Amino acid sequence: MSRGRRIRLVLGYDGSGFHGFARQEGLRTVQGVLEDELRRMLSVEIAVEGSGRTDRGVHARAQVVHFDLPYGPSADRMVHVLRRRLPADLLPRDAAEVDEGFHARFSVVRKTYRYTLDLSPLPSLYWYRFSWHHPEPLDLAAMQEAARHLLGEHDFTSFCAADAPQQDKVRRLDRVEFRTDGSRLHIEFEGNGFLQYMVRILVGTLVKVGRGRERPDRIPLILEARDRRLAGETAPPHGLCLWNVEYPPEYGGKVIDLGDDL
């Protein structure tokens, strides 16, 4: 029996008011808010699948979900309807009808996360919810040197939560790029997958290098040790944003290309 039409929806959200993406009983989550609104719209239970979970306080510029509609508005219309119905901190950006072979999580080819540090002497009233305020000077060249050791395929056990649920800790990191924007430093990580807290621990380690408290040439040793205690602190969640998700060409490649907007 057909499940109806499969919709791929691209969402942006301010993670400040959410306890992460995945539904949790009694807590406000992205998945929970979206599923509840779809149920109110259509009077049936709609299961939403995401490209991955974001933790409490983490933002998204382009989270991707899919769900099957037994009936209801077209994909284009769905975006406009949901924009009127969802809260302001959860923004539907784009939607498309896809075939049943598409899966928001399992069809992913590559993801990009961006972490933002605010290096100004005083925290920004605008950016404080979207950046880690770090007024201490950082050695950017040392951080870039350290980042080069992270590229490629590695076992990232040292750079994920000690109790991360994934058994296989091998991931491929294709790009680590540093961008300055006034007093802000953006660090972008692009790879085929990320472990729990991985980007935040990578950032904490790079900041440790930037402060002169770790040597760039020790990164390979930390990787090889597979010991979380050797890496840096876990950077705060509010500086992290799921920036983009990429799928095979038949499913549209990168789901969004809107410059540097949030």
Automatic annotation (TrEMBL):
<feature type="binding site">
    <location>
        <position position="113"/>
    </location>
    <ligand>
        <name>substrate</name>
    </ligand>
</feature>
<dbReference type="InterPro" id="IPR020097">
    <property type="entry name" value="PsdUridine_synth_TruA_a/b_dom"/>
</dbReference>
<dbReference type="InterPro" id="IPR020103">
    <property type="entry name" value="PsdUridine_synth_cat_dom_sf"/>
</dbReference>
<feature type="domain" description="Pseudouridine synthase I TruA alpha/beta">
    <location>
        <begin position="146"/>
        <end position="248"/>
    </location>
</feature>
<protein>
    <recommendedName>
        <fullName>tRNA pseudouridine synthase A</fullName>
        <ecNumber>5.4.99.12</ecNumber>
    </recommendedName>
</protein>
<keyword id="KW-0819">tRNA processing</keyword>
<dbReference type="InterPro" id="IPR020095">
    <property type="entry name" value="PsdUridine_synth_TruA_C"/>
</dbReference>
<dbReference type="InterPro" id="IPR020094">
    <property type="entry name" value="TruA/RsuA/RluB/E/F_N"/>
</dbReference>
<dbReference type="GO" id="GO:0160147">
    <property type="term" value="F:tRNA pseudouridine(38-40) synthase activity"/>
</dbReference>
<dbReference type="Pfam" id="PF01416">
    <property type="entry name" value="PseudoU_synth_1"/>
</dbReference>
<comment type="subunit">
    <text>Homodimer.</text>
</comment>
<feature type="domain" description="Pseudouridine synthase I TruA alpha/beta">
    <location>
        <begin position="13"/>
        <end position="106"/>
    </location>
</feature>
<comment type="function">
    <text>Formation of pseudouridine at positions 38, 39 and 40 in the anticodon stem and loop of transfer RNAs.</text>
</comment>
<dbReference type="InterPro" id="IPR001406">
    <property type="entry name" value="PsdUridine_synth_TruA"/>
</dbReference>
<feature type="active site" description="Nucleophile">
    <location>
        <position position="55"/>
    </location>
</feature>
<comment type="similarity">
    <text>Belongs to the tRNA pseudouridine synthase TruA family.</text>
</comment>
<keyword id="KW-0413">Isomerase</keyword>
